[in-house]
Design goal:
Blueprint (H helix, E strand, L loop, with lengths): L2 H41 L18
Length: 61
């Protein structure tokens, strides 16, 4: 192997490592955002029950 091919191989390896690192960081940020969103949804008071939900069933033959 000549020096250029060795350097090219190392550069590809470094680029792959950097891409994985960036994707991992983005995934971590998105996970934290979703966790915060779900936590805020749990903290909200539940809505009033629907006035007709569960009272009757429409049956078509």
């Amino acid at each position: 192997m000549n020096m250029n091919s060795i350097m090219a191989s190392q550069l590809r390896s470094l680029q792959s490592t950097v891409q994985l690192s960036v994707m991992n960081k983005a995934l971590s940020i998105n996970t934290a955002a979703v966790t915060d969103m779900l936590q805020s949804m749990q903290d909200q008071p539940s809505a009033a029950p629907h006035p007709h939900k569960g009272m009757s069933i429409d049956v078509k033959a």
